[in-house]
Design goal:
The protein has one domain. It has five helices and seven strands, in the order ααββββββαβαα. The strands form three sheets. A three-stranded antiparallel beta sheet has the order 1-2-3. A hairpin with a 6-residue loop joins strand 1 and strand 2. The longest helix is centred in the last third of the chain and has 20 residues. The chain is globular.
């Protein structure tokens, strides 16, 4: 992913107001992030544990979405799989993250959700730069490039749902 500055990140959000985008807490030390190893920028808000944010390249530019994290405790004995990067995590390592749809649909309360790595570090798990607690990543027959392409395609489908202002019947 190409590095983004604070203004680019704040201006990329499509499912919140400009005021909300101005007030959200950005990750610290943006310049020091491993941008070359990121397929998207994702972070949890340390001051609001029920909020997460994701910014990714989509249709030629950065698209940011605000995400809500449900306050649900998961069993530590259960294994869950991220729908983006297909990384298995024990317990609360995967969360259902929901995003309000962009535009009129979002203002009417419509949202979409998907199960993602709770820390939004899919890119780092794929590349072996971060390990899932208690669960080892299964060996895949796909190359790293193919796994990255799959993750980006899964993310693109999710972002397309967020950007769709009409709700399917």
């Amino acid at each position: 992913m190409d590095p983004l500055d604070e203004n680019e990140i704040r201006n990329s959000f499509v499912n919140c107001s400009k005021g909300e985008a101005r007030r959200l807490n950005l990750p610290r030390a943006l310049a020091e992030l491993p941008w070359d190893s990121l397929d998207f920028l994702g972070w949890r808000d340390p001051q609001a544990p029920d909020r997460s944010y994701l910014v990714a390249e989509h249709d030629g530019g950065p698209v940011g979405v605000t995400l809500r994290v449900p306050n649900v405790r998961r069993s530590l004995t259960r294994t869950n799989v991220c729908s983006l990067c297909i990384t298995a995590h024990a317990g609360s390592g995967v969360s259902l993250l929901t995003a309000r749809r962009a535009g009129a649909a979002g203002r009417q309360g419509n949202s979409v959700g998907t199960y993602m790595c709770a820390d939004l570090a899919c890119s780092l798990y794929l590349r072996g730069l971060r390990k899932s607690a208690l669960v080892s990543r299964p060996e895949e027959s796909l190359t790293l490039e193919e796994q990255v392409a799959r993750t980006r395609a899964n993310l693109a489908r999710f972002l397309a749902q967020v950007l769709t202002e009409t709700v399917p019947a």
